[in-house]
Amino acid sequence: MDRLPRGRHGLSPEYVARNQRERLIAGLTEVLYERGYQDTTVSLIGQRAAVSKSDFYKHFESKDDCFFAAYEAAIERLRHDVLQSCAEHREDPWPPRVRDALEVLLRTLAEDPALASISLVEGLRAGRGVYDRYQAAVESFVTYLREGAPGAPGGGEVPEATDEAVVGGIASLLGRRVLAGEAQQIDELLPEVLEFALTPYLGTAEARRIVSDG
Amino acid sequence: MTPSRPELPKEFVAGHKRRRMTDAMASLSAERGYEATKIADVVRRAGVARKTLYDNFDGKEDLFLAALTSFFEDVEEAVEGACAEAGGLWGERVEAGLSAFLRVVAERPHAAQMSMVESLSATPSASARHDAAVRGFVALLDRTTPDDERLPDTLEESLVGGVVWVVSQQIRRGDAAQAASLLPELSEFVLSPYHGVAEVGSNPGRESDSTVADFNA
């Protein structure tokens, strides 16, 4: 996030305020990735964002308040990328649509480890208020997966718990990779994650065929 | 010391008191969260002296970690026992292990909530304890299911992560006592990826009530 020019710049106060707020959110996300939640302080966030402590408190009541905003922004970015991919491939059959959405998701996470960390690890660990948001985020991705999904390979509906387990399982696997410091290699997991996601709906053989077709 | 007063009862009483304190920690942290749980409340609920608590534990976090460990040990013991006792077919062992896990969750809903939900955000040591338990389940599932190079290396991690997520959601909704109702869906979820690379195997005597058998049908 670029700093604004010093002195008179002719930018509207609204613009300056929005830019500061975005810088603080980006600052928290970076410091959090480097130091973890406990050691992320308002001073460090301010330093990183080049925003004074008193300006910090014009935007946020507390570190937690800033954290919630940063968490929402992270999830919103992931959601935006995934939804855009889904919209672009609206006409495609379900399996390649899932593949494209997962590919976009994994690439976005791999390119920005700090984003991966706040959305997949810290969102579970930073207290009760965030856990609810983490849950809501997982649920929203369940909705995307379910849309257009076929029935179970042996006939009948795939149970709802399965949709949840697929999305929760992917989130858990990716979170563990981030914790292990492997966020940047997350996109290499695409074939495995895709096979895992498709198997309950298509069966192992068909899931594997789609994965190997690339 | 006279031979007629062996040490066992004293140890028994001490163990019982420890359990009362870890149980009190479990129910309080499930109700209010770890942060809001105070040692004074634990002491009151457990019906022990404050000194007794500090004789046994260094403080709140130490007690919380002991309570978590007690739950995860119960789960590990139940799951490994059920796997070992189940038939020779790996599908049956997986289902028996899963069933045992759900049973412990249903029997100890507060401890389950503390261990599977509250632990994540309580302290770094607590979330590490949760991670260690998950890693243990991943290793057990890996040992129990057939090896096949065509299966993704990360499959067991994803499956255990999915199961833990669904069970955590059930707990958060306040439905831990009905956790066993998840067994058919979760069994199918865990077993289905192995279908096609290995025979799950069926036990003719249990076809009507076994999801392993349903799955194989």
Count of DSSP helices of chain B? 10
What is the chain-wise order of helices and strands of chain A? HHHHHHHHHH
How far apart lie the N and C ends of chain B?
66 Å
- Share of helical residues of chain A: over 70%
Shape verdict of chain A: elongated
Major β-sheet profile of chain A: none
**Percent helix of chain B:** over 70%
Strand content of chain A: under 5%
Greatest contact between two chains: A-B, 38 and 37 residues
Determine Rg of chain A (CA atoms, Å): 20 Å
Report the β-strand fraction of chain B as a percent range: under 5%
Which labels suit this protein?
heterodimer; A: 214 residues; mainly alpha; 10 helices; elongated; B: 217 residues
In short:
The complex is a heterodimer of chains A (214) and B (217). With 214 residues, chain A is mainly alpha-helical.
Q: What would your notes on this structure say?
A:
The complex is a heterodimer of chains A (214) and B (217). Chain A is built from ten helices and no strands. Chain A is mainly alpha-helical and 214 residues long. Chain B is an all-alpha fold and 217 residues long. In chain B, helix 1 (8-32) packs across helix 4, helix 4 packs across helix 6 and helix 7 (124-144) packs across helix 8 (155-172). The longest helix of chain B is centred in the middle third of the chain and has 26 residues, at 60-85. Classes of the chains: A mainly alpha (214), B mainly alpha (217).
